[in-house]
């Protein structure tokens, strides 16, 4: 079975490749990645030499290159992780988000139509549902919650979801979609909340909490997300959307305080900064469908997952120190310099 995994040099895609190569050694994985600032080839070093793994540096928006790869590999399954993923960058400049997250998805699905495919899986996000109020803990996102986006990032992801469902209905493309909550774990780029706070705390730098830190996210250990996608590929129904989340809602400020405690750093490092524009208040996934229909349940609780994650960042300093230099330093200065 040949599977194209796009965006496999990024955070979740790389974890997915490791998981699949370990659990399905009979699969052949072809990773297609443009290696943007968020993609890091060194992450894939442990699998680079494997006979059943191939890395191809291409852009999902490049139709000719994508078709060439399909011609060569004739994949049966495509899992699309490739995307611009950082909300703050999408607020700064939406263009590349529309390019990759919408038009790139169109190219990938056109290739699937042209060459034939058993499954196209679109990795989406809970952000397509917008946000929930902080004072209504009874409300959760279900697959029937209307799309109601807040940022250019989430709008681009919602556009891709709608396009994927249209390709299923109009052309009969065998599409599935997963909408997951916030992931954390090894290999996450240090612009995102958890690795950014770990990296800054270790350097005794200020910990920039947006607004009052009261916004809530529903955190899931990355391997549990990978397992959910594998299950959807094996047992999911085409044309269906599956929400993936761990019933693990936490306020940002509590996460940052927990990181301080784990690292033995003072909470005085916490600095409240100007809020994100259009900042979503709360995300909370109802994962009942994937549990009832496919038997998926998260396996790593937050208390264990955050310890494993912090340990990983302590043990792999060179990985994030290296990618945290260069372009990222300029971004950091732009984003936080005057905040
Ligand atoms: P990431 O930013 O860490 O990695 C994205 C990867 O995509 C990088 O390797 C990058 O080089 C590659 N890429 C970007 N543009 C490309 C293009 N035009 N062509 C080919 N490759 C390209 O992202 P992530 O956090 O691993 O997210 C992966 C997917 O999961 C995204 O689609 C995201 O929307 C979705 N998602 C993320 C989360 C989360 O918490 N991180 C939660 C739910 C869903
Ligand atoms: O819910 C899934 C989504 O989770 C994914 O689709 C996105 O790709 C992913 O980036 C993530 O989006 P968030 O905006 O929730 O993640 P981020 O890590 O950027 O921020 C998490 C929360 O922390 C959010 O409320 C903003 C806040 N925050 C973030 C940063 C970077 C801060 O307070 N300070 C910061 O410096």
The structure class reads: alpha/beta
What's the CATH topology label of the domain at 2-188 and 221-245 and 280-299? Rossmann fold
Strand content: 15-25%
> Could you state the CATH homologous superfamily of the domain at 2-188 and 221-245 and 280-299?
NAD(P)-binding Rossmann-like Domain
Largest sheet: 7 strands, parallel
What's the helix-strand series? EHEHEHEHHEHEEHEEHEEHEHHHH
Polypeptide structure, described:
The longest helix is centred in the first third of the chain and has 21 residues, at 95-115. The relative contact order is 0.14. Helices cover 44% and strands 17% of the residues. The chain has a 7-stranded parallel beta sheet with strand order 3-2-1-4-5-6-10, sandwiched between helices. A 3-stranded mixed beta sheet has the order 7-9-11. It has a two-stranded parallel sheet with strand order 8-12. Strand 5 (119-125), helix 6 (152-171) and strand 6 form a beta-alpha-beta unit. The radius of gyration is 19 Å and the shape is globular. It is built from 13 helices and 12 strands. The protein has a domain at 2-188 and 221-245 and 280-299: NAD(P)-binding Rossmann-like Domain (Rossmann fold), CATH 3.40.50. The model has no long low-confidence stretch (mean pLDDT 97). With 339 residues, the protein is of the alpha/beta class. The structure holds nicotinamide-adenine-dinucleotide (NAD) and 2'deoxy-thymidine-5'-diphospho-alpha-D-glucose. 2'deoxy-thymidine-5'-diphospho-alpha-D-glucose (DAU) binds next to helix 7 and strand 8.
